[in-house]
Amino acid sequence: MADPNLIDLQEIAPAEVGEIDLYQRREKIYTRKIEGFFQRIRLFSGWPLLLGYLLLPWLYWDGRQSILFNLPERKFDIFGLTFWPQDFPMLAFLLIIAAFALFTVTTFAGRIWCGYTCPQTVWTSIFMWLEQKTEGSRNQRVKLDQAPWSLEKIARKTAKHGSWLFVAFVTGFTFVGYFLPIRELFSSLLQLDLGGWPPYWILFFTLATYINAGWMREQVCKYMCPYARFQSVMFDHDTLIVSYDSGRGEPRGSRKREAIPAELGLGDCIDCELCVQVCPTGIDIRHGLQYECIGCALCVDACNSVMDKMHYPRGLIRYTSERELQGERTHWLRPRIIGYSIVLAVMVGVFSYSMITRVPLELTAIRDRNELYVTTDSGAIENIYTLQLANMDREMHEFTISISGLEGATLIGDTVHTLNGGEIRSISMRVREDPELLTQPSTAFTFDVEATDAPDLRISSESRFMKPL
Ligand code: SF4
Ligand code: SF4
Q1: Is the CB of 302 inside a 6 Å radius of any atom of ligand 1?
Q2: What is the CA(309)–ligand 1 centre distance, in A?
Q3: pLDDT band at 4; cut points 50, 70, 90
Q4: Are residues 277 and 394 in the same domain?
Q5: Is 244 domain-assigned?
Q6: 225-264 burial, b if ≥16 CB within 10 A, otherwise e?
Q7: Low-confidence winner among 62-76, 92-106, 261-275, 376-390 (lowest mean pLDDT)
């Protein structure tokens, strides 16, 4: 007999128990080509970035590759400036500024970076363009994929993947050219003499581009990009978003072009689904703001073209804000934007100032902590120091070391040093002083280093001189 205290699982179990696939199967997206105002903006923003990426490593600046992240020699050449590992805080600060600028722009204009300038978007657009050129329009591509293998299908697929691989190779090669001198790399490539690691990295970045822009596309934005995940916290009710005006569009439904929607009890959306067919992430913007939306505005251009044909006003899908959709006015200048802009301006100002006043020389004076001082036979006091001198210029210089702030003191040790560009040297120095001239047990003074051939190249480092109490 069944225990009345036990629950019969049969009674509460669902009628049908089945397997749940925890990973959603990817539906291939066949995007429809669309032209319009925002696509022209995308073209004008994407091309300069693409050309910049491809051409910059080929340009020379001040006799050197304009941008070269020379990892073996641990120096970065950027437009005539050379950065060493000691400059890392400055580069980190630059990255922080870039991230903060992105946050500010996102708060103001939503995912404008994703839709117009993100490399994933730009390269995916190129790959889609190649796909249209080799396999035809959306309908032709759907038919081609459903058709059995034939010579034409093989030829079209080969042309598509061949062109994708070519673009991916150029991308991968250029990327490696930011880390190795690209002209030498290219001449080694022509001579089929790419030894060592470069071929592996070129192959890696070629495949990464081919897979990301050719196969994964929107999956990168939806599942891999961290920015897509946390950008929603930067949104507020006034942020610019691509949105469907459901108040105007609903109830949706098909109708003849000359029909008057109000008489049919319909809104302006004719339910043509063109906005869905052009969407590179395959979403229906009419379902509201979704994290998959990269703000590319393809659906805006698509819907505007439909509205034009129907002789309805444009803007059923448009750039707007949640506040505007609720019938209020968007607040463009709001405290958050003003605050972000001020912080950004201050950070850019501090960075620019430190770049303009940057001296490519670094000096650190470290006092010997084992022996506070040494008393010589003549009664003088000596303190021992180790100077870390880094010549962060790319030229070799001769430097002289002196001290100031300790009257009558003498430096014992080699005071003239020649350092190559990028060289760091540890220099041991002793400072000798007459104790009668010291009024304090601890006196501040500075080590001064100056290049004999470039008087502007000088730096000081503070230290202290100790005498017996
Ligand atoms: S919904 Fe519109 S703006 Fe968003 S990704 Fe799709 S086409 Fe682009
Ligand atoms: S393109 Fe415009 S009219 Fe067509 S379904 Fe989308 S919102 Fe409706």
Answers
A1: no
A2: 21
A3: low
A4: no
A5: yes
A6: bebbeebeebbeebbbbbbbbbeebeebeeeeeeeebeee
A7: 62-76
